[in-house]
Amino acid sequence: MNRYLFKVGTQTTSFLLRSNNQVFRSFSTEKKSILETIDQQVKGNPLVLYMKGTPSAPQCGFSNTVVRILEAEGVGKYESHNVLENDELRDGIKKYGEWPTIPQVYIKGELVGGADIMLNLYKSGELSKMLQDAGIIKN
């Protein structure tokens, strides 16, 4: 029976494979973890939306609400990710933000929230100020 001798989810450049009492060393280039990928996306873009569907075709009412709010605020381009295309991303974004629901909006690397929070911020005018302060929209 073959067993890998490394902890799943940890970064490694090599691992050991034990087979019939012999130990073999095998080298691998492990891909980045999903949390590292999300971290780069969130920190590398002024506004990131993790949603079900795409901005042009949202696949849930909450995602649609967030897209329409961003349109109403005059947000042009922003990065979005369809979590329905990637189960690892869907689970990863919930862990990354420590937030159980989707959509999730990040502005300047910080989790703002989902549809309900975005709607409240929009209605109060706070969202407009946040977007202006982040340089995403102009006065």
Protein architecture, described:
The chain is globular. β2 and β3 form a beta hairpin. The strands form three sheets. A four-stranded mixed sheet has the order 7-4-8-9. It has a three-stranded antiparallel sheet with strand order 1-2-3, with no helix packed on it. It has helices spanning 34-43, 61-72, 87-97, 115-124, 126-133; strands at 3-4, 14-19, 22-27, 47-51, 53-54, 57-58, 79-82, 104-107, 110-113. It is α+β, with helices and mostly antiparallel strands and 139 residues long. The protein folds into two domains: 1-30, no CATH class; 34-133, 3-Layer(aba) Sandwich (Glutaredoxin), CATH 3.40.30. The termini are far apart.
Number of strands: 9
How many strands, which pairing sense, and closed or not: the largest β-sheet?
A: 4 strands, mixed
Q: Class of the largest domain, according to the CATH hierarchy?
A: Alpha Beta
The fourth-level CATH homologous superfamily of the largest domain is Glutaredoxin
GO molecular function, one term: metal ion binding
InterPro entries: Glutaredoxin, GRX_PICOT-like, Monothiol_GRX-rel, Thioredoxin-like_sf
Protein name: Glutaredoxin domain-containing protein
Keywords: 2Fe-2S, Iron, Iron-sulfur, Metal-binding, Redox-active center
Essential attributes:
2 domains; 3-stranded antiparallel beta sheet; alpha+beta; Glutaredoxin; disordered N terminus
What's this entry about, in short?
The protein is an alpha+beta fold and 139 residues long.
